[in-house]
Structures are given as structure tokens and as C-alpha cells.
UniProtKB/TrEMBL annotation:
Protein name: Rab-like protein
PANTHER family the record matches: RAS-RELATED PROTEIN RAB
NCBIfam families in the cross-refs: small_GTP (TIGR00231)
Pfam families: Ras
Keywords in alphabetical order: GTP-binding, Nucleotide-binding
Organism of this sequence: Strombidium inclinatum
Molecular functions (GO terms): GTP binding; GTPase activity
């Protein structure tokens, strides 16, 4: 059987949400920044171990724009998620501090629902420019 999960990928502009999704889905990394307009939708099939109840998981990844002009659309989508990835950029401490606002937006639109969420530290390969320590990130 197949489990389908809607996964919202959220965070401030330029934290690398689209790069994360493209890497997960296509094994592709684009070095040029292109702002996401509204949202982008991708599907990733994950084959599960034979012993698992579900043989396949279909992840519906929704990469949402971080810009303020898209916040209403973004927050509307947050209320329709099964899982949320909140992404920050380790080279930009403001993106880490603003995770609290993203979390509040998720909570406000999912009252009474048990929603799974993960915080993702992105751009960790830029160690020499990191301004958010792994301890703070945890």
C-alpha cells in the first residue's frame, strides 16, 4: 500500500528551500538563485523496507516562497500539511531567529492537529561563514 504525505518546506527567502527540494527529488543543485513565486510542487517516491506496513511513501513536497508578499498563501498552505520542514541558513542568524514566527504560523493553522515538523539547518557546507552554531540550532 501507499502512504501519501503533504510536506511543506518553509522558511525565509534565500535559505535554500528550493535547492533542498531539487536535491531530494532530482539530485540536482542549481548555483543560481531564482526566487520561488508562490509555491512549487514536486513528488518524490520513497520505497520502504519489506517489513514496513507501507511499501511506498509518496511525498508531495510543496516548496513555498518566503517573501512577505506571499505570506498569506504560504500560511494557508501550512494548514493543509501532514509535515513541515522549517529551513534556516546557518550563515544568516536572522533566518534562525525568524523560525519562531514560522512555527507560530504553523501552530495557528493546525490547532487540534498532530503535525510532524523538522527544523533543517541548511548551507552547513559553508562552515567558514556559519553564524549559527550546531548547539544553537539544536
Amino acid at each position: 500500500s501507499i502512504l501519501r504525505a503533504r510536506v511543506i518546506v518553509a522558511g525565509e527567502p534565500t535559505v535554500g528551500k528550493t535547492c533542498l527540494v531539487n536535491q531530494a527529488v532530482n539530485k540536482n543543485f542549481n548555483h543560481q538563485y531564482m526566487m520561488t513565486q508562490g509555491c512549487e510542487y514536486h513528488v518524490k517516491d520513497v520505497q520502504m523496507d519489506e517489513s514496513d506496513h507501507y511499501k511506498r511513501v509518496e511525498l508531495h513536497l510543496i516548496d513555498i516562497a518566503g517573501q512577505n508578499i506571499f505570506k498569506e498563501i504560504t500560511f494557508e498552505l501550512l494548514g493543509k500539511a501532514n509535515m513541515v520542514l522549517l529551513v534556516y541558513d546557518v550563515t544568516n542568524p536572522d533566518t534562525f531567529q525568524l523560525l519562531r514566527q514560522w512555527l507560530e504560523g504553523v501552530k495557528a493553522r493546525n490547532e487540534g492537529r498532530n503535525l510532524t515538523g523538522v527544523v533543517v539547518a541548511n548551507k552547513v557546507d559553508l562552515e567558514n561563514r556559519a553564524q549559527v552554531s550546531s548547539q544553537n540550532g539544536q
